[in-house]
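Running co-folding for flavin-adenine dinucleotide.
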Amino acid sequence: MITLPEAEQRLVERCERWVAESVVPEAGRWERERVFPADALVGAAELGLTRLRVSPRLGGMGASFACKARIAELLAGGDFGLAMSVVNSHNVAEELARWAPEAVVQRWVGAVGTGACIGCTALTEPDAGSDFAAIRTTAARTGDGWRLDGRKAWITNARAADVVIVYAQTQPGAGAAGIAAFVVDASRAGFARDDEPCSGAPWSMGTSGFRLDGYVARDEELLHPPGTGFERALQSINGARVYVAAMCCGMVAASLRCAAEHGDRRQAFGRVLREHQAWRFLLAEAAVDLRAARLMVADAAQAIDAGADVRTRAAAAKVCATRMAERHVRALGHALGAEGLRDRHPFMRHIVGAQVATLVDGSTEMLLERIARRFEDP
Ligand SMILES: Cc1cc2nc3c(=O)[nH]c(=O)nc-3n(C[C@H](O)[C@H](O)[C@H](O)COP(=O)(O)OP(=O)(O)OC[C@H]3O[C@@H](n4cnc5c(N)ncnc54)[C@H](O)[C@@H]3O)c2cc1C
């Protein structure tokens, strides 16, 4: 839909081959054996995917947002959890490269970019999800930095992350105005992971929670000062909405391919399934909605690359694509009959992926609120 520059197109093709060879054959096993596939994250890093949008000056690929969206689609076609894990780790490198002081950039950006370290970003808490301004993790000024206390929950990659961007409240009662963000080193005193992963989430997402108990962040580890944290989080979340929408397209595209192959083989009533009109209409319905969702993703991705305001476009693309994935992954799995339940096919994982996609980076209701504020916003 978007013609990428040649170097980005080659990267997309390498990514496509890697997903087919290294993700698709393994993804069912990750879920069955309940493992977080750290090796796959390293494989993604070797392709450059965890430094995709980092500037070449810092060892990154300097790729466009449209390229990121295309890669997110391909990764999620193989496994939504892995796609989220790779992109969330990448986002820490991108965010630190953009905002952190030199010493922090030197410490983490290369390490996350090469896959030596894993990153995650923590806004959500046990008692605050959609209502981000209500977070209770506190950051209090000390002589040589900030003391952080609180709990985070449902954080992608938190099971294995080495570096965490933590959002915290610096002035209890101040809401959005008091929110700041800190770079937290998971190996330092005061950081403790929850023992239990978040059950129900894909294992390949490494979703977990953690506790901060008197953790001390140094002055240079203040990433977004109080008064800027809330707004900057919302800025980057617009991009997240677009790549999650792209991931939904990837899950539907993979499901569609799988159903089409089955329909060419499986016989019923003397003909292959594809020759039954009512059966092939299931696939045609999915193809129509997939095309519409991809156009919305492409439109929003191009607008991001052009530096435009995409708040409404990003929200609309995610609402459209998540609904499409919720509807069609299930329907396409149904098109395989009982065979669709087997874990050599992606349907059951993608059904969970589609459900998770309706929550992360703004739930559907939050996005509809955004759209309803001004229908004609960009
Ligand atoms: C697998 C997974 C990975 C995640 N990864 C991350 C991560 O890496 N970092 C991170 O910070 N967070 C992460 N999250 C958390 C995610 O952002 C939250 O789940 C999301 O913000 C919704 O918050 P909640 O689950 O607390 O639901 P709640 O905020 O409690 O909402 C519950 C329901 O009520 C609806 N609702 C809430 N308020 C309103 C309203 N005003 N009007 C109408 N409906 C409303 C919501 O849409 C939702 O359907 C992850 C979640 C999951 C499931």
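Result summary
The chain has a mean pLDDT of 96.
The domain at 120-227 is CATH 2.40.110.10 (Butyryl-CoA Dehydrogenase, subunit A; domain 2).
Job closed.
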